[in-house]
Specification:
CATH class of the largest domain: Alpha Beta
CATH topology of the largest domain: Rossmann fold
Helix content: 25-40%
Distance between the termini: 79 Å
Shape: elongated
Largest sheet: 3 strands, antiparallel
Strand content: 5-15%
Bound molecules: glutamic acid
């Protein structure tokens, strides 16, 4: 049995995306787990923008991060937008802080300025590749002799330890990850911490910020596991306590291929027209975590954000790669559509009204439609029901059929069929009720609208035809 690792104190977690693209399923899951852990323990969830790699920055990406979190309801307690006690929360605005901490390491003899030219570094890289076995550890420590010689330029390297410390991860346990050296041509893994543009590298900024922002738990994707020894070495160099690390498995589609655009790899905001955020969050939460259950007992997998917060525990994270099945997302969407609270329902009404340019009250119809749909885009099959728009393309005998229906005061379908041919009734009714020649089956429409609305629409249609 795994040791219990779920914290019992208010933790500080962070989501630290780089603005290099849009937020997709994998990154929103990272944000979600950090959010759930913070909220479950009564702690704080911090958003930090890691924008030190100016070349990889993509326009609009930062905005996409804010919007994606907002849509999912994962509102940070501290962020570049709202600030907080440990700001600024955007790394490009923290240059002086990194400079100060890099100098501290230089003064301790644990970092040094490096003036090697690009060409020299390139040659070193190539010669390292030719070694047998080849190595990606390439630098020869040429500049280590004059560690604080600022005239060499702005690049500062970390003096990496001979052996990296083992790391402890709450899912993976203790790991000893060392770079591959070539014993005959010893090179050093002295990675750059400050670049010539005055900005820090990811590793350095990440460690300095997690420490200064008092982060207690780092939940991030498994792809960062191999960087963690570098981070822990930096914590040790400063004499700081590292946070707890939790590296969560990759997210893959069922076929193990990259998720297709429609599956949210194009950015989760592209799913807004199809799924409710609560359904998406529910779906994502279960990729790598399952709520505790008493043995033999089933549990309801459909959970809103508050239930997820309540049930979330680091003790029930799973280790394997999580596979995405879109059917399950549809299932959750249907379930969540059936249990919208007043606020969510009002929001949906507003969205539907603006998306389909509808005027007036849509709530009553929407309530009737919801049990029939799985995804939100299916609402488009029903929009003609909100308000029929009549055209001069009137079916034959329409007026007569409609009058008969009205005068007989019979709006049950069976009764209607007694008074005219099935085809005529259906065509005329479809016209009166929707204004369209095609669409949902007439009995379905009759069922959705109800007798009062049917009567109103038949009168409207007759009135329209009379004025043609
Ligand atoms: N900026 C990194 C990213 O884009 C953060 C990794 C981490 O959480 O340490 O994923």
């Amino acid at each position: 049995m795994r040791m219990r690792v779920h914290p019992t104190f208010p933790v500080r977690t962070r989501f630290a995306p780089s603005p290099t693209g849009v937020i997709h399923l994998g990154s929103i899951r990272t944000a979600l787990y950090n959010y759930l852990l913070a909220k479950n323990t009564g702690g704080s969830f911090i958003l930090r923008i890691e924008d030190t790699d100016q070349k990889r920055k993509i326009k609009g990406s930062e905005e996409n991060i804010y919007q994606s979190l907002k849509w999912c309801g994962l509102i940070p307690d501290e962020s570049p937008m709202i600030g907080g006690p440990y700001g600024p929360y955007k790394q490009s605005e923290r240059k002086d802080i990194y400079k100060k901490y890099a100098e501290i390491l230089v003064d301790k003899g644990l970092a040094y300025y490096c003036g090697c030219s690009k060409d020299r570094l390139n040659d070193l890289r190539q010669s390292a590749m030719k070694l047998k076995p080849p190595t990606t550890v390439t630098y020869d420590r040429k500049c280590f002799d004059k560690p604080s010689d600022k005239s060499l330029g702005g690049i500062i390297r970390f003096k990496s330890p001979v052996t990296y410390p083992s790391i402890t991860d709450l899912i993976h346990g203790t790991k000893n990850i060392q770079p591959q050296y070539n014993v005959d041509d010893r090179r050093y893994d002295d990675f750059v911490i400050m670049k010539s543009d005055g900005l820090p590298t990811y590793h350095f900024a990440n460690v300095v910020d997690d420490h200064l922002m008092k982060i207690t738990h780092v939940i991030r994707g498994e792809e960062w596991l191999s960087s963690t020894p570098k981070h822990v070495a930096l914590y040790e160099a400063f004499g700081w306590e590292p946070p707890q690390f939790v590296h969560i498995p990759l997210l893959t589609s069922l076929s193990d291929k990259k998720l297709s655009k429609r599956d949210g790899d194009d950015g989760i905001l592209s799913l807004r027209d199809t799924y409710l955020p609560s359904a998406l969050i529910n779906f994502i939460a279960l990729f790598g975590w399952a709520p505790a259950r008493d043995s033999g007992q089933s549990f309801d997998e459909t959970m809103d954000l508050n239930t997820l917060i309540e049930r979330f525990s680091l003790d029930h994270l799973t280790r394997g790669n999580a596979k995405v099945s879109k059917d399950k997302l549809g299932y959750f969407n249907k379930r969540h559509l059936q249990s919208l609270d007043d606020k969510e329902f009002t929001k949906l009404c507003e969205d539907v009204k603006s998306k389909y340019s509808l005027q007036g009250e849509v709530g009553d119809f929407l309530k009737k439609i919801l049990p029939h749909i799985t995804t939100l885009d299916e609402i488009s099959n029903y929009t003609h029901l909100f308000k029929p728009i009549y055209t001069s393309d009137v079916p034959e005998n329409c007026r007569e059929v409609l009058l008969k229906i009205l005068n007989d005061e019979k709006f049950g379908l069976d009764d209607m069929l007694k008074i005219s041919s099935k085809k005529d009734v259906f065509k005329s009714l479809r016209y009166a009720l929707t204004g369209l020649p095609k669409g949902l089956k007439v009995p379905e429409i009759v069922d959705l609208l109800g007798p009062q609305e049917i009567e109103k629409r038949i009168n409207n249609a007759i009135h329209y035809i009379d004025n043609l």
